[in-house]
Amino acid sequence: MPSTARRAAVREEASLDVRFGVHTGLQNTTIAELHGLWQRIEELNFDWISIWDHFYAADNTGNPHCLEAIVAHAALAAATTRVRCGSLVYSAGYRHPAVLANAMATLDQLAEGRVTFGIGGGWLRNEYEVYGIPYGSPGERLRRLEESIQCIRGLLTQEVTNFEGDFFTMRNARCEPKPIQQRLPIWIGGGGEKVTLRIAAQHADGWNVPFIAPEPWAHKARVLDAHCERLGRDPSEITKTVNVGMAFNDEELFRQFGPMAEAVRPSVFTGSVQQMVDHASAFCEAGAQYLILAMRAPFDYEGLERFAAEVIPAILTA
């Protein structure tokens, strides 16, 4: 049986209800390289591929070699046929919500209904400052985020959108054509317990937080559920996900993440297959529905192939 068919058969009999994805960083790479990587990820039977939204490399080194997100998102949609095409996450501070809504509506047409739109408040201060984009306080960034989500949801689902906020105003605003999906999923990125998770509980279809160990992830998931209960929303309506590293050894960890390696280590799938299974099981027991491997160039193709062939089947049948 071909490897992809074998893994599909394993999924059919899996004891865990979890899906796997790959988050592909856009720094130090090319669209041509990403095109081949995305197609291989899909062939390996992953369910999700996403891109990030940065103008500079997301490692605080000041490296400006980074592809633009909307164009890369479109390339991802065009290069694949089955996977969900996600973003983790667009920054609410970089584009007007009308720009994002119209882009996502068109992208969903291109992807034939496979787009998931992730958005967050933004965090990489350096790239705001070098371009003269207002960064603002944490409170300002989160208020902008919440207004953006409301505007985008309205434009993607309503014939006409009216909105009055501190950051955005819309008067009889339209977005046509609409996405193929009746409700294009909106995910919130971030782990702030007082505001970000409340915004997710109130407005989002999904939630993602990167580079966090299972125990604190479980705590934040419980906080999200508590916000849902206070707002009268069923917590099961929100897809809970996590971005994790994947490195079979320390050399690969430092090659991918450089100065961030120690900071991301608590999240990383590393060591033996059994150690990776135990790590995944802790997330799954806490309610994670997607485990998304965050990869950066130079991409570890060998590790990805091994994870798909050895680790995923072991996780699913654990």
CATH superfamily: Luciferase-like domain
Could you give the order of strands across the largest sheet? Answer: 3-2-1-11-10-9-8-5-4
CATH fold-level name = TIM Barrel
- End-to-end separation in angstroms reads 22 Å
C-alpha geometry:
globular
The percent range for helix content is 40-55%
Low-confidence stretches: none
Rg of Cα set: 19 Å
Q: Give the second-level CATH assignment, the architecture.
A: Alpha-Beta Barrel
Mean model confidence by pLDDT = 94
Largest sheet: 9 strands, parallel
Total count of domains: 1
Walk me through the structure.
- By secondary structure, the chain is an alpha/beta fold.
- The protein has one domain (3-316): TIM Barrel, CATH 3.20.20.30.
- The chain is built from twelve helices and eleven strands.
- It has helices at 3-12, 31-43, 69-79, 97-110, 125-131, 138-157, 196-203, 214-231, 250-257, 261-264, 273-285, 301-316; strands spanning 19-24, 48-51, 84-87, 90-91, 117-120, 161-164, 169-173, 186-189, 206-210, 239-244, 290-295.
- The strands form two sheets. A nine-stranded parallel sheet has the order 3-2-1-11-10-9-8-5-4. Strands 6-7 form a two-stranded antiparallel sheet.
- Strand 6 (161-164) and strand 7 (169-173) form a beta hairpin.
- Helix 1 runs parallel beside helix 12.
- It is globular, with a radius of gyration of 19 Å.
- The two termini are 22 Å apart.
